[in-house]
Specification:
alpha+beta; Heat Shock Protein 90; 4 domains; about 675 residues; disordered N terminus; Rossmann fold; globular; Ribosomal Protein S5, domain 2; binds ligand 28G
Amino acid sequence: MADDLFGEDGGKDMREESRAPAPAPKPVRPAPAPRGGTPSEAGYDASTIEVLEGLEPVRRRPGMYIGGTDERALHHLFAEVIDNAMDEAVAGHASFIDVELFVDGSLAVTDNGRGIPIDPHPKFPGKSALEVIMTILHAGGKFDSKVYETSGGLHGVGVSVVNALSDVLEVEVARGQMLYRQTFSRGHPQGPLETVGRAPNRRGTRVRFHPDAQIFGEGAHFVPARLFRMARSKAYLFGGVEIRWRCAPSLLKPEGDIAPEAVFKFPGGLRDYLAREIEGKDLVAEPIFSGKITKEGGHGSLEWAIAWLATGEDGFSSSYCNTIPTPEGGTHESGLRIALLRGLRDHAERIGQSKRMAQVTADDVMATCAAMLSVFIREPEFQGQTKDKLATLEAARIVENALRDAFDHWLAASPQQALKLLDWSVDRAEERLRRRLEKEVSRKTATRKLRLPGKLADCSNAGAAGSELFIVEGDSAGGSAKQARNRANQAILPLRGKILNVANATREKLNANQQLADLILALGCGIGTQFREDDLRYEKVIVMTDADVDGAHIASLLVTFFWRQMPRLIEKGHLYLSVPPLYRLRHGTKSVYARDDAHKDELIETVFKGKKPEIGRFKGLGEMMPAELKETTMDPSKRSLLKVMVDHENKEETSDTVERLMGNKPEARFLFIQERAAFARELIDL
Ligand code: 28G
């Protein structure tokens, strides 16, 4: 346990530290220019350390390093620290990792690895390797060939980034029978590396940190359920590691969905995980196709578990590289898709059915497929805005080769199951081709247009690409919007009043509701299990409601509807909320719009330099002149839109929250409000 390693007082010290205010950040001493590369006593060549920079840039532009300052970014700090501990475990030096969330909002991660080296750093006279790692950006260096590095992009930005964004961070290292400690604040050492004392039989690193409210905001805090799931997934992903979870009970929800203490250890790895995820569901073919290949030194190791769910179920694929989630997929997922398609094709050929397989694509084989894939490669590269996609080409080949062999065996082991899978894939392909044909026919005969709801003012462009549907509250706003729109690619659907709350509506009630029927018809993509992204008639679906509580309520009812009935529309990034202004400020010839009170005050200062502008408050979108509506809310070059997104790792939590806030249990809502009463501000304005 952590307590054996570091003792309870480590925690106490931390709390006292966090009370003492950190000094104002002072400029970091410029790093001396690197000299020649002499190997250090720690056994690594520090000349591989490339970019040397202090931590000021991290505090100035946190988004560049952790992708923002929102809740996701906050949890990225945890990912960074636990990934370092995982590296130590995956490399075979640590067998457990402790994760502890404390009442004060700080988080501690402990491993029993080798301990971060504390000897003097060859290139920074007077500094230990530990201090360099903690205070110099990109000072991770290259790991030796036997060890992984979770480097690249947002991942592996280095623990120094966590340090820079923490108001208190304490590192303890148990190494060579001794215990060392150093404390930092906002990236600056609060003293030298201390030798705490002898620590025989102890090894490893402990990092305890408290995210800086100056960066993440006053109300920002770690979400226990989210940490719990992140920690648990690390244990699934590396069967050899034991992860122990501890959370201050007072931080947990009264419903008790998350245990205050838990041990995650999954000798069966991904297969255990998948079996649990799909428990009770019908499969196209049994058993789960899974396997694991471990390579000496790790590079090229992989593990997978795949199940084909019966039609009607939603499939999913969760892939990882070096235990880092890759929700956008990438090269490793491509390798998997190709392996399954080719494997099944070859099998069809062997049994003389290759003709049937000819039209089957990887998408058909993967439809309703529940797939878990984890690969380990040296120095992976990630791409995409959030670095959520694996780009290393070699991963495709590694996965394809490994899976081809194993899949051949799986198919050959049970010809009957293989045939079921083959038949099912061919069915998927035929269904897809049939639908495509229907679509073409319906387009040609233009019958589709006739089936559109009467209230919809459709756009004139054909095809979804570049088109937008504005869902507008009320006929009067609808009228303005129709005049303000760009007829070519913007369509308007006015809804009258509040829509049905679908959170507790039955299917019949939903079907009987004219408002929703119109909306479903206008979108064209179907709902529930019939949802098809390909049929969506618009690229962007924009909810445009008034900037008041009623508008917010209608927007939440709509978002609830989409979340319940077409979650993929949200997941695929089609849903947006418009941001209409609340005020118009005018002085002389200058006229600007403000979205809320804070923005209004800011504009008075910055644009009008304190002069009193004439302030008009919009009561609703319907009150705006069409030109005004266009300029502030609809014109793509001037408007702001909020994209509705859902974190793939937190779908369950999202569903829970929607149920709690929109469901038919008022107590749950009451509880939610009560729990958060302390965070509420400016209630008077409502
Ligand atoms: C508890 C929270 C997160 C870690 C280690 C162990 C070593 C290390 C970490 O070395 C410097 C530069 C390149 C190798 C490595 C110790 C080799 C020998 C380590 C962690 C050395 C960093 N002895 N454990 N870093 N590299 N755990 N847990 O962060 O050459 S970070």
